[in-house]
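User: Working on a comparison across species. This one is Neutrophil cytosol factor 4 from Grus japonensis. Can you predict its structure so I can line it up against the others?
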Amino acid sequence: MSLPRQLREKSDFDQLPDDVPVSANIADIEEKRGFTNYYMFVIEVKVKGGGRYLIFRRYRQFYALHAKLEERYGAESNNGPFTCTLPMLPGKVYVGAKKEIAENRIPILNVYMKALFDFSGTNKLELSFKKGDLIYLLSRVNKDWLEGTVDNATGIFPCAFVKIIKDLPQQEETVNKVRCYYHDENMSTIRDISVEEDLSSIPSFKDLMELMRKEFDQDDIVLNYRDLDGDLIRLLSDQDIELMVSQSRTRPSEKHFFPWKLHITHKDDLGVYNTSPGIGATQTVRST
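Assistant: Here's the predicted structure for Neutrophil cytosol factor 4 from Grus japonensis:
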């Protein structure tokens, strides 16, 4: 590369705002149990000014972004004058590197603590540091001990030896619940199933059916919901799921509960459905 070009590129970089991201690396991978088991990638983003922050993305979000970039800027794109060759997106087998990534995880954000006193660890689990050291806070072990890292060493130490400058961010509750009514010949029961999904998530019919079969240990079940008239409607496809979610948005819901509710019945039990339009909800299904 010629010297004038190097100087020009350096000048262009210097003019960028300090909050412009300049690199992103996978810091950790977290396994989640949602409508189906999935992995959440923890990405450390560094900005020009030296700061850093974390973003959390599922694999499918990387895939969707890659597809959009390919559509707009790929070699076969006709949407604009600029095209580029995008790298191949690694397959889901990449999560096999979870252990190696976790062992080399980076500090969560910027400086969190400053050491008030010297602390000498008495075993391999404890972190040693000097008064005035800046320590990255990784987690709270309990009310008396913290986990942190300094000078490429990681360990636990007493809270009383440090002053927290910037605390760990408050994490929102990621475990929400699906309320299910299970109906058999003799009784109806309620079961609340926990999933690590955002309340705005819409599951696929396949994932939801597999989850319910596993939870209730039954293969001959079908999924239903109550429509705006109170009648049971059998779910058969992704489109049915979307309609159920859409109708549920007009109804009140409890905190950390999905606004839609499932009614689980046996495949051959057709008596739960209202076959007389206009009469109202069937009385065959017993509410709990």
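For your comparison, note: The helical segments are 3-14, 59-73, 98-103, 205-216, 238-248.

User: Helpful, thanks.
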